[in-house]
Amino acid sequence: MDMPTPDNIALTHGLPFERDIEESEEELDAPDEIDPVGFWEAKQRDLLTSVLDYNLKSLTDLVRTGKVDLSPNYQRRNRWNSIRKSELIESFLMNVPIPNVFLNEDAYGHYSVIDGKQRLTAISEYLQGNFRLRGLKVFSEANGLSFKELPVTLQTILETRANLRAVIILRQSDPDIKYQVFRRLNTGGMRLNPQEIRNSAWPGELNDMILEESTSPEFHALLGIRDRNRSAIYREMRDAEFVLRYLSFRTNWATFSGGMGRKLDSYMGEQHKISSTEVEHLRAEFRGAIRRARAAFGENAFQRWSPEKQTWRKQVLAALFDAEIFALSEFAEEDLLIHQAEILEGVKNLFSDKEFRGVVDAATNTPAYFRARIQIMRDMIARTIG
């Protein structure tokens, strides 16, 4: 009989992790636009692809020599355990069809993974002798064996007969169409979320900075992340998406007119090639915003107050991240720190206000609600500081 799982605990390949954010993946950043026909008519000829069938030895060599970049910080942060890796190897031995992997051509002969990172990691790690097979049902006699300990026949099957098809998006392809294609290249069992797709579509200094700041000790402390391996925010790259939310709306939240996902996408598409100086300026702005949030709200930043239970909920609320991070832009860090206790009392009072609860609890990506919750929070802080 399966044991019940608490609401705030999720299971990934048998490993528990905390649900330290309230929203599901879809609710946090659900794109609401429909791709217009005109877009495809204008762009469809600008997608250039190549399809190649690699045997597993060739794929392993590409990974080993760095020609295929698996980039641990580039995409998904959660990894397959040894049993799931072993099951993939067994599938190759059984000649079971495996879904294609998708690669982005970064430079001639060098690729990064769009979809298939876990499969490529499992293949390369096993053929390089980095783990032993576990939990196999059909080839149970191979349990406990590394690649070099397999019978020679099975080694040969894996190295030369087993193959995996790679669809390569060539570097000449139009960036707009590449992003739209990346959104549709989710064929494996673990679908890419919107932030992972942005990482794949728009690599560069801006994206690197977002990833770096998203995992800084200061930001993780503000988000209440104590153990990355057990945090849904970290595993699902919600921390990186929060950084992007700040950068995308920091100067124009008051004029936001719709399409949260589209706004984040367009910001990355338009800004991903900015200069190193501009990237560092944005980094400084984000760090200043985090310091102000810590000064104003302390360990209760971005958390919901429950008037009924008289407690703070420990999960992060994305709508409250918006309300608090943007409401603070006009206030000095020193003033916020001095009045922290009063500000927190003000937040508690807001959660007894029907209007405020309405704009943080329902349809939170609606432009009017987005703007209203920031304005209400800003007005409360202004009254408190005086």
Structure description:
The chain is of the alpha/beta class and 386 residues long. 49% of the residues lie in helices and 12% in strands. The protein is built from 19 helices and 9 strands. Strands 3-7-5-6-4 form a 5-stranded mixed β-sheet, sandwiched between helices. The protein has a two-stranded antiparallel sheet with strand order 1-2. A two-stranded antiparallel sheet has the order 8-9. A hairpin with a 2-residue loop joins strand 5 and strand 6. Helix 9 runs parallel beside helix 14 and helix 17 crosses helix 19. The longest helix is centred in the last third of the chain and has 22 residues.
Chain-wise SSE layout:
Elements: E1 9-12, E2 15-18, H1 25-28, H2 37-43, E3 49-55, H3 56-64, E4 68-69, H4 82-93, E5 101-107, E6 110-115, H5 117-127, H6 152-161, E7 163-169, H7 175-184, H8 194-201, H9 205-214, H10 217-222, H11 232-235, H12 238-249, H13 260-271, H14 276-297, E8 303-306, E9 311-316, H15 318-327, H16 333-338, H17 340-350, H18 354-361, H19 367-385
Parallel strand pairs: 4-6, 5-7
Antiparallel strand pairs: 1-2, 3-7, 5-6, 8-9
Helix pairs in contact: 3-5, 4-5, 7-8, 9-12, 9-14, 12-13, 12-15, 15-19, 17-19, 18-19
